[in-house]
């Protein structure tokens, strides 16, 4: 019997302990703090980027640490969803446990003399002894409270005493209910937008991200494809001008999932404008949506913070890159400069075969404008312009069959320094390190052809040099080249060109490849980086925001104020104990309390004086 009794008591106590824990203020505040920290991380650290970008930015050690913590996709990590889920559970527990009591209190106060209505336990309290009988004193107190806007309720305690309770702002409890309900709505919507079904599918293995970013869409594994009716998703896609797509890609770790879209997105035109510093000022994508039959569903201009919306799917302007521009180039061989320039073409994103060498040249990117500070290239700006536009440029990677290579940034237009114009190319042999810049002087026609002829003449002269000192044949060879190819060059121009050419030849000793590629023309094409999202719960979040604002407004501007007055009959007169409290602005309420007490003293005293005068 004893064991049964103990078990029956222990069960409910454990349940009560769990409920009290879930509904505690400490747990709710702790969860909110954790969510705030996670949200700050998700805001400061750019989310869902390729892992290579994070590895380059943070280094191998911190990259592994942040990856294991899930900081590259905070809002869809298991620990973040667990925090949100616990917050929903905690807030729901508070709401379910307290709402019935609050509703009853709003309708009618609990007249049971608990500590909440004990005047001696309130923040403001005082005591008055009146010679009036209890009935008269009760009547006067009730009248004063009603005159101050309170709704007095009388309760006979059965021990000869009377309790009068007056309240203002009884509907302030609605603010508590609304704010808690709004938090539940926010968190539930966040869980819905987190696309939990996809996470469960990945957990059981039916959905698996594709890790190869270089295969065509038709080769992507079926396990990496998400259903068309996926209720929520957030993917990105890059669309070149004049082309279209019907899928978006959602990055997951070091892979991606393919999300089919209910329409086809076509980028008709793209426009970008810049500030004087070269930073993008505005970029706009003219987008057309088509259905499967080719019918136009919607056309709109998409710009930053101005998305296109169609049937619950939103398309945001996120970035822009080169969309496969056609580049026209000239290649000069440093080990055989007399061969002349070799004309080549290629599109950005493709590799160009360099015949006669063991190298291939991958065209990585193309920039139409390159605005840099004038001081960076030691140039004197015109007027008050502190920046110079170096014009078009492209980046490329030269890779040999043996694995060696280098990355280049090649500018199309020559730049001028101290009266001499130069072809400029940035060179680096390790990704992430700063570029080392090569400056080759350009001739009267703006190309490096004259320099290559001088270099070829030097190589030939070096093989037949018979005792002539180096300084003499270098200078004599230069004069012969100028006389044959640029006879109109002035002596000052010759001197400047000679010094620049010698400096360039010295720089070429550390040049990592046996050729130089220049840009002679291009057919530019933009590509827009778009973010495609479907978050059905967003409208719920908007309504939850409205509810939260309303609840906070009620809590701040509709405080609950309570007066509790206990009257006890004395041998001659009545003892009046007055207590008052307010949920907000205690200083203002203290002034109101003092004014009401002063009024009660005056009324009860006046009644005493009137009684004395009548007796007299």
From TrEMBL:
GO terms, biological process: cytochrome complex assembly
Sequence intervals crossing the membrane: 79-97, 174-192, 540-558
Compartments where found: Membrane
Predominant localisation class: membrane
Keyword hit for RNA-binding: no
Keywords: Cytochrome c-type biogenesis, Membrane, Transmembrane, Transmembrane helix
One Pfam family from the record: ResB
Domain annotation ResB-like: ranges: 25-594
InterPro entries: Cyt_c_bgen_Ccs1/CcsB/ResB (IPR023494), ResB-like_domain (IPR007816)
GO cellular component annotations of the record: membrane
Membrane topology category: Multi-pass membrane protein
PANTHER family associated with the record: CYTOCHROME C BIOGENESIS PROTEIN CCS1, CHLOROPLASTIC (PTHR31566)
Name under which the protein is recorded: ResB family protein
Phylogenetic classification of the source organism: Bacteria, Pseudomonadati, Pseudomonadota, Acidithiobacillia, Acidithiobacillales
């Amino acid at each position: 019997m004893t064991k049964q009794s103990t078990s029956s008591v222990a069960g409910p106590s454990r349940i009560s302990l769990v409920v009290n824990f879930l509904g505690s203020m400490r747990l709710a505040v702790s969860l909110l703090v954790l969510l705030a920290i996670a949200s700050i991380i998700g805001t400061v650290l750019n989310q869902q980027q390729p892992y290579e970008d994070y590895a380059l930015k943070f280094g191998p050690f911190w990259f592994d640490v942040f990856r294991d913590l899930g900081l590259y996709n905070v809002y869809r990590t298991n620990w973040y969803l667990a925090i949100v889920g616990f917050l929903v559970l905690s807030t729901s527990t508070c709401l379910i446990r307290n709402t019935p009591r609050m509703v009853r209190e709003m309708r009618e106060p609990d007249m049971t003399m608990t500590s909440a209505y004990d005047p001696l336990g309130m923040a403001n309290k005082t005591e008055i002894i009146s010679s009036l009988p209890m009935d008269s004193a009760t009547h006067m107190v009730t009248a004063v409270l009603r005159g101050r806007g309170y709704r007095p309720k009388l309760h006979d305690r059965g021990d000869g005493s009377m309790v009068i309770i007056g309240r203002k702002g009884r509907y302030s409890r609605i603010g508590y209910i609304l704010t808690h309900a709004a938090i539940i709505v926010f968190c539930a919507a966040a869980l819905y937008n987190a696309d939990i079904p996809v996470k469960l599918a990945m957990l059981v293995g039916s959905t698996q991200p594709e890790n190869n970013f270089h295969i065509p869409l038709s080769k992507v594994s079926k396990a990496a494809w998400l259903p068309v009716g996926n209720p929520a998703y957030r993917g990105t896609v890059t669309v070149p001008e004049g082309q279209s797509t019907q899928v978006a890609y959602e990055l997951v770790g070091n892979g991606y999932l393919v999300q089919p879209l209910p329409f086809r997105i076509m980028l008709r035109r793209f426009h970008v404008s810049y500030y004087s510093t070269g930073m993008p000022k505005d970029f706009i994508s003219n987008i057309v949506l088509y259905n499967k039959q080719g019918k136009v569903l919607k056309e709109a201009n998409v710009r930053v913070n101005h998305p296109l919306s169609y049937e619950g799917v939103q398309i945001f302007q996120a970035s822009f890159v080169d969309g496969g521009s056609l580049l026209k180039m000239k290649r000069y061989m440093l080990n055989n400069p007399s061969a002349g320039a070799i004309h080549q073409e290629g599109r950005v994103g493709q590799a160009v075969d360099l015949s006669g060498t063991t190298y291939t040249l991958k065209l990585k990117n193309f920039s139409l404008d390159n605005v840099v500070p004038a001081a960076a290239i030691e140039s004197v700006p015109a007027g008050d312009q502190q920046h110079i536009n170096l014009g078009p440029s492209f980046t490329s990677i030269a890779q040999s069959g043996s694995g060696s290579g280098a990355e280049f940034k090649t500018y199309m237009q020559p730049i001028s320094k101290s009266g001499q114009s130069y072809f400029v190319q940035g060179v680096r042999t390790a990704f992430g390190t700063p570029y080392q810049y090569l400056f080759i002087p350009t001739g009267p026609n703006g190309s490096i052809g004259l320099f290559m002829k001088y270099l070829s003449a030097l190589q030939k002269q070096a093989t037949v040099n018979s005792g002539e000192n180096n300084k003499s044949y270098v200078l004599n060879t230069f004069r012969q080249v100028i006389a044959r190819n640029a006879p109109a060059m002035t002596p000052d121009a010759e001197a400047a060109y000679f010094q620049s050419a010698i400096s360039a030849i010295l720089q070429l000793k550390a040049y990592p490849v046996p050729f130089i590629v220049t840009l002679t023309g291009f057919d530019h094409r933009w590509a827009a980086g778009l973010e495609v999202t479907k978050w059905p719960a967003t409208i719920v979040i908007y309504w939850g925001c409205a509810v939260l604002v309303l609840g906070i407004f009620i809590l701040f501007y509709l405080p609950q104020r309570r007066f509790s007055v206990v009257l006890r009959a004395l041998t001659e007169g009545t003892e009046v104990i007055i207590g008052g409290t307010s949920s907000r602005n205690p200083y203002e309420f203290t002034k109101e309390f003092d004014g009401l007490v002063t009024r009660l003293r005056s009324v009860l005293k006046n009644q005493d004086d009137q009684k004395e005068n009548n007796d007299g």
